[in-house]
Amino acid sequence: MGVDVAVTNLSKSFGKQLIWKGVTLTLPAGEISVMLGPSGTGKSVFLKALIGLIKPDEGSIVIEGTDIASCSEKELYEIRKLFGVLFQDGAMFGSMNLYDNVAFPLREHTKKTESEIRDIVMEKMDLVGLLGAEFKLPGEISGGMRKRAGLARALVLDPEILLIDEPDSGLDPVRTSFINQLFVDLNAQIDATFLIVTHDVNSVRVVPDQIGLLYHKHLAMYGPREMLLSSDEPVVAQFLNAQTIGPIGMSEEKDADQLAAEADIKLPPLPPIPLQLEPSNGIPRRAQRPPGEWCRLNGITPPPGSFTPTAATSMG
């Protein structure tokens, strides 16, 4: 399960407004990647481009040999079968109970019997901890439960790529911790390729294998978790440590006078890198790639000697 997603030189504008340009990265098969960025930097647009809902102006998105940025509608339809998507609000049908919401993709896209559908739906609801809530309506449950129901629905077609848009929005810190653990547990069980868009820095520090940061209309950096958490690149260090000192301001980018005023301010040391979350279900976290493998996937020459995660690699 899980496939690489190779993005090369991707650019997108809406009219005269450039969203981002020259985005290049590879989402490694079976790993959890997170995409960060200040508000308005096009993170959700990037998700929509990956699933073919938005056509980029330039570049390619290659999945199992098919470039979804330029393929036919028939080819795109087939590639989309690899995806599961968890939308920000869960996107539940309000008039359907949770069971029917989760069963919907199976009824729409397969010819399975109701007996087969029941087995799959109950298995996925069990995976996300919703057994016993099958007949509740979305309006009768909490936001966290709606997100878990949306996740169960995203899983019913056994996706190899799972796209998750701001799973922490509207959740308190405790529920966010629970859903983070759920993602790690699921990744260990189904080994799909995860891409999570989030603003929650606490989640980013402990959940992913890879982290990307969109900023100022380009991909500022993408690479292993430890590499970004130990990076002294100003925008990366500022964002991942929630600092006011740095190039990011209230209107995305600070002006020259603001930056000059901060020039002599000594930044606090980077906090220690926390341990990565481990699956709670006894299944070992997927094997990490050997040193230097991420560099090979992204066409970057590793530093001499063994690859060191503190060697910051800028992608733009």
What does the model show?
Helices cover 32% and strands 21% of the residues. The protein has helices spanning 43-50, 73-80, 98-109, 114-127, 143-155, 173-190, 201-206, 225-229, 234-240, 256-261, 293-297; strands at 5-14, 17-27, 32-36, 58-63, 66-67, 83-86, 161-165, 193-197, 210-215, 218-224, 248-249, 252-253. The chain has eleven helices and twelve strands. Residues 302-316 have low confidence and may be disordered. Strand 9 and strand 10 (218-224) form a beta hairpin. A six-stranded mixed beta sheet has the order 6-7-8-3-9-10. It has a domain at 5-82 and 159-297: Rossmann fold (3-Layer(aba) Sandwich).
Short description:
By secondary structure, the chain is an alpha/beta fold.
What do we call the CATH topology of the domain at 5-82 and 159-297?
Rossmann fold
Q: What value does the Rg take, in angstroms? A: 20 Å
Q: What is the topology, as strand order, of the major beta sheet? A: 6-7-8-3-9-10
Q: What letter string, H or E per element, gives the SSE order?
A: EEEHEEHEHHHEHEHEEHHEEHH
Keywords:
globular; 316 residues; single chain; four-stranded antiparallel beta sheet; 21% strand
How are the SSEs ordered, and which strands pair?
Elements: E1 5-14, E2 17-27, E3 32-36, H1 43-50, E4 58-63, E5 66-67, H2 73-80, E6 83-86, H3 98-109, H4 114-127, H5 143-155, E7 161-165, H6 173-190, E8 193-197, H7 201-206, E9 210-215, E10 218-224, H8 225-229, H9 234-240, E11 248-249, E12 252-253, H10 256-261, H11 293-297
Parallel strand pairs: 3-8, 3-9, 6-7, 7-8
Antiparallel strand pairs: 1-2, 1-4, 4-5, 9-10, 11-12
Helix pairs in contact: 3-4, 3-5, 4-5
